Amino acid sequence: MMDRSSLLKNKLLALLLGSDPAVYTALFQLVNHLIQDFNLAQRGYRLITNGGPYQSIPIWHWHLVSKAFSQDSADPGGSYG
Questions:
Q1: Are 44 and 53 spatial neighbours (Cβ–Cβ below 8 Å)?
Q2: What one-character DSSP code corresponds to residue 79?
Q3: Cα separation of 61 and 81, whole Å?
Q4: Which of 17, 23, 39, 72 is least surrounded by Cβ atoms within 10 Å, i.e. has the fewest?
Q5: 56-65 residue pLDDT tens
Q6: Measured between alpha carbons, how far is 12 from 15 in angstroms, rounded to an integer?
Q7: By three-state DSSP, how is residue 1 classified?
Q8: pTM over the 0.85 mark
Q9: Domain boundaries in the chain?
Q10: Which strand (E) or helix (H) includes residue 6?
Q11: 26-55: per-residue pLDDT in tens?
Q12: d(CA 33, CA 2)
C-alpha cells in the first residue's frame, strides 16, 4: 500500500507526463546544464512554474531563479531567497 506522499507524487507525475515525455526530458536536461554552467548547485536556485491567475503570460512556462544573479530588487530571483 502506498503512503499519501507517494500517491501524490505519482498523481503529479502522471499529470506531467500526460504531455509528450520528451518535452520534460529536454526541459530538465536544459535545466541541469544551466545549473552546472552557472554553478547554481553551490549558489542555490529554484525552478518555479506558475498557473492560472499567477501567470502574466498565458502559457505554461518555467523560471530558473537564483538570488546570486539578481540584477536588482525588482528581479524575481531576489524575492525567492
A1: no
A2: H
A3: 20
A4: 72
A5: 877 778 889 9
A6: 5
A7: coil
A8: no
A9: 4-79
A10: helix 4-16
A11: 888 999 999 999 999 998 999 998 877 887
A12: 33
Per-residue cell: 25: 526530458
d(CA 36, CA 79): 22
Cβ distance 43 to 68 under 8 Å? yes
Cell numbers that stand for 66 in this block = 537564483
DSSP labels for 7-63?
A: HHHHHHHHHHTTS-HHHHHHHHHHHHHHHHHTTHHHH--EEEE--GGG-SSSS--EE
Q: Which amino acid is located at 68 in the chain?
A: A
Instruction: Please report the sign of the dihedral spanned by the C-alpha atoms of residue 64, residue 66, residue 72, residue 76.
Output: positive
